[in-house]
Design a protein that fits this description.
about 475 residues, single chain, five-stranded antiparallel beta sheet, alpha+beta
Length: about 475
């Protein structure tokens, strides 16, 4: 279920997909352990819990629908996006009422997202050599037939709205986006060594088509024009995927509980100071030296009691509630789709559960026990996925939710040495040869999924190779035992 990859030079990205079920909800517990070498100086003494939780950002979106090309092309399939779009445009051409323009636009976005999902899947299969030339050829035949039918529908909507409107623009944007996907699939398959003569012809045809349509996603010579192309591609991607985005609703419960407990700490401290003042009035003469000393000490202890109780309550709140609580809601019905409670803490590796220590030590050096102890960031997300009860035509086709966790690792880079060192190698001809050698550091990320009963469903260990310039690569590590 884990999909762990490098997102940028300072971020790693972890994707997990949660399916929806109409009969029941369920709970998953996700744990991420980041083992930090002591020389990088990332520890509870150098980074606060609040700063640490901000380095773990969760985003949610609906997963790309699992609809095959055959289902889309099936003219008897009433759930096919092509059939729905053709029917809606036919109603508009006859001046008859359609459900809504918004639903038509959402269906275009849904089709484009499905197209993107198939392109990504083909790219992965081609790189892994898990498909042959005939399967790739069939993929392009189906993809181009879908686009041919879609372009016919686009021409029909332009007859209804010859001067254009939002609906016409949506059809054109969908056309442009899917054209880019076919071109990208052809280029990637060609570069992967797929022996098909038609691949470059397909890519050229789509490029020429976009030029004739005067679409913005056309590469031209010159840096500034290439920037325009990149921006347009990103704009189309964001537009098509905006249908899937879910905006997290952050719960204020931890903040409210923190305010309540801070008030309780102040009340307890003030109670102590008031009782001490009453005691001083009863025992000592007012305005005498002992009376003044008693009042001063009471207020000194009052401040210390208040700060101590605040620290105690701040450490206790996450264990009672969480460091952060978020909800994802359906944009159509407003129903709660998922609730996630997130907790974070940092402690030495010896404080971690036994299974975590065993996994880490199984890939460590034989002298691991005598080296300085690693500090471990433990991020836990307790996720409750609710039963699916959608009744919207588009949302009915969205059967899963993907949560993307981005982890920012810039704090681990602050204490690193320079990325390159000069080393000298003795040679027979010139004596010594100087060469550059890259210096790297290793973080280890252990990720686990457990069900609601505590059974481990998946465990992954990855090595994050880093230097001062950022993340060099992420290597999966096989776990022994």
């Amino acid at each position: 279920m884990f999909d762990i990859r490098r997102h940028s030079s300072k971020h790693i990205e972890v994707k997990i997909t949660y399916p929806f079920f109409s009969t029941h909800g369920y709970t998953k517990v996700i744990d991420h352990y980041i083992f930090s070498p002591p020389q990088l100086n990332v520890s509870p003494k150098t980074i606060s819990r609040e700063s640490l939780i901000r380095k773990f950002q969760s985003h949610g979106r609906y997963s790309t629908p699992k609809v095959s090309f055959g289902e889309i092309l099936d003219e008897q399939n009433e759930n096919s996006p092509l059939i729905y779009l053709a029917h809606s445009v036919r109603l508009l051409s006859e001046n008859r009422r359609v459900q809504s323009d918004t639903l038509i636009i959402h269906t275009i976005q849904l089709l484009a997202n499905t197209f993107r999902g198939h392109e990504s899947s083909l790219d992965t299969q081609v790189r892994r050599r898990s498909v042959d030339a005939s399967q790739v050829d069939q993929w392009f035949a189906s993809a181009r037939e879908i686009l041919r039918r879609y372009r016919g529908i686009t021409q029909n909507i332009k007859l209804v709205y010859p001067i254009g409107n939002t609906l016409t623009t949506a059809f054109e944007w969908g056309d442009e986006e899917m054209s880019l996907q076919i071109e990208s699939a052809a280029v990637n398959a060609y570069q992967a060594g797929m022996e098909l003569k038609c691949l470059l012809d397909i890519a050229r045809e789509e490029l020429e088509y976009r030029k004739r349509k005067k679409y913005a996603s056309v590469t031209e010579e010159g840096k500034r024009k290439d920037e325009k192309y990149q921006f347009r591609c990103a704009e189309l991607k964001k537009w098509t995927q905006s249908l899937l985005y879910l905006h997290p609703v952050i719960s204020k419960a931890p903040q409210r509980m923190s305010s309540i407990l801070a008030g309780a700490a102040a009340a307890i401290a003030m109670t102590f100071a008031t009782l001490a003042a009453v005691f001083a009035e009863a025992i000592f003469i007012e305005n005498s030296l002992p009376w003044a000393m008693m009042i001063i000490l009471a207020y000194v202890f009052k401040d210390r009691i208040k700060e101590g109780l605040r620290a105690l309550f701040s450490a206790t709140i996450p264990n009672i509630l969480a460091d952060k609580i978020i909800h994802f809601r359906s944009p159509w019905s407003g129903r709660k789709l998922m609730k996630a409670n997130m907790l974070i803490q940092m402690s030495p590796s010896s404080n971690q559960p036994q299974v975590v220590q065993m996994v880490r030590e199984s890939v460590a050096s034989p002298f691991f026990d005598i080296l300085p102890e690693e500090d471990v960031v433990h991020y836990r997300r307790i996720t409750k996925v609710f039963r699916s009860m959608e009744d919207h035509q588009v949302s009915d086709r969205l059967s899963a939710l993907t949560v993307v966790l981005r982890i920012r690792l810039d704090d681990w880079m602050k204490e690193m040495d320079d990325s390159e060192d000069d080393i000298f190698i003795p040679t027979e001809d010139i004596g010594l040869a100087r060469t550059k050698c890259m210096k790297v550091y290793h973080l280890h990320l252990l990720s686990m999924i457990q069900d609601g009963s505590g059974h481990t469903e998946e465990l992954q260990l990855n090595r994050i190779v880093m230097n001062t310039e950022g993340i060099v690569r992420i290597e999966p590590v096989s776990v022994n035992g």
